[in-house]
Structure formats: C-alpha cells, structure tokens
C-alpha cells in the first residue's frame, strides 16, 4: 500500500498544473455537454441549480472513468438531490422534489461553492405563447429558493429584528391590559 501511495504521489507531482478556471458566462445545456471530460484539453464542468462550476481539480471523480463521470457536462441538480445515477435524473429540473431532497441539493451546492470556482450559468430554454422557445439565464444568486406551486401560499420572509419588535409590542400590550 505504501508503495502505491508513493507511486501515486510521484505521478501527481509530475502532472502539469491545472490552468486557471476560464469564465464561461452564459452557456446552453448543449454547450455545457462539450465539457464532460472527453476532451482533456477542455476544463471539466458541471452545474448545480443552473450555476456552472469548474471541477477539473477533481477529474478522478468527475472525469472519464470516475465514479461521478455521468454528472460532468450537465446540470446534475436532480440526480444529486435524489442521490441517483439514473439517466432521467441527470437534469437541472428540480420540480417536485421533497424537502429532504432539496436539503441534500443545498448541501451539494454549498460543497461546490466552497470547493470549486463558479464559471458561468446555464441558459435555460422555456416555451413561449407561439410555441417557439425563449432562452433565459439561471439566476445569478445561489440562494434562489424553489418556486412554490401556484396552489400554495408562499411564506413571507421575516427579519429577526421584525419578529423581536412584534414580540416586544405584544409583551407591552399584555402589560397594559
């Protein structure tokens, strides 16, 4: 085992350093597929919630032959949220996911944000009235919450200070009564 580790260390020391990540800007899902690791001269990219990350430094995981190679060149949000390797889950569509899956996806997003450089966003195509498609970029913020279905009322975000003020006012009102 020690010999294998030593050989691996020597191989890693001889490897060329990775080029700095290149900002891609807004790219289509089709363009993103070109960065799946099949061309060793191109960076290895992967997206979560429409945000594209350069995962070249982890080629042993996301590159060809790696355990997560099927995620490379794609927005793998649904697959990561469901911890799935099924082809139908290799999509950025997170509609219909439950709270535990969304929490798992958030954990993955935080991991990617802390470990990899964000290099762009995935341009989404959405149907429009006349049957054609229009492109929209994924939101720039990674704090985007999933959209609640139209039948549910989305809770309003409240600042801690606002809650404290209301509690103080309620306590004051109780004292006066």
| Assigned CATH superfamily | Cytochrome b5-like heme/steroid binding domain
H-E order: HEHEEHHHEEH
Helix content: 25-40%
Q: Quick one: CATH class?
A: Alpha Beta
Structural class, from helix and strand content? alpha+beta
Label the overall shape.
globular
Radius of gyration of CA atoms, rounded to a whole number: 22 Å
Distance between the termini: 77 Å
Detail the poorly predicted runs.
Answer: 138-158
Largest β-sheet summary = 5 strands, mixed
Subcellular location: Cell membrane
GO cellular component, one term: endoplasmic reticulum
Biased composition (Basic and acidic residues): 151-177
Membrane topology: Single-pass type II membrane protein
Q: Can you walk me through this structure?
A:
This protein is α+β, with helices and mostly antiparallel strands and 177 residues long. The protein has helices spanning 2-14, 29-32, 59-62, 77-82, 99-115, 160-176, and strands at 25-28, 45-48, 51-54, 117-127, 133-137. It has a single domain (2-146), classed as Cytochrome b5-like heme/steroid binding domain (Flavocytochrome B2, Chain A, domain 1, Roll). It has 6 helices and 5 strands, in the order αβαββαααββα. Strands 1, 2, 3, 4 and 5 form a 5-stranded mixed sheet that branches. A hairpin with a 2-residue loop joins strand 2 and strand 3.
């Amino acid at each position: 085992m020690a010999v294998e580790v030593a050989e691996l260390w020597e191989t890693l020391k001889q490897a060329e350093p990775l080029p700095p990540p290149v900002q891609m800007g807004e790219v289509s899902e089709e363009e993103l597929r070109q960065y799946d690791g099949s061309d060793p001269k191109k960076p290895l990219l992967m997206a979560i919630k429409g945000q594209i990350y350069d995962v070249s430094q982890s080629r042993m995981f996301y590159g060809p032959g790696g355990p997560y190679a099927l995620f490379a060149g794609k927005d793998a949000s649904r697959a990561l949220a469901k911890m799935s390797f099924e082809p139908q889950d290799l999509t950025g569509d997170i509609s219909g996911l439950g709270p535990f899956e969304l929490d798992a996806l958030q954990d993955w997003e935080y991991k990617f944000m802390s470990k990899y450089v964000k290099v762009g966003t995935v341009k989404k195509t959405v149907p429009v009235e006349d049957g054609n498609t229009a492109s929209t970029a994924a939101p720039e913020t990674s704090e985007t919450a999933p959209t609640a279905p139209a039948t549910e009322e989305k809770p309003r975000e409240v600042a801690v200070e606002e809650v404290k003020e209301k509690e103080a006012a309620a306590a004051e009102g109780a004292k006066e009564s």
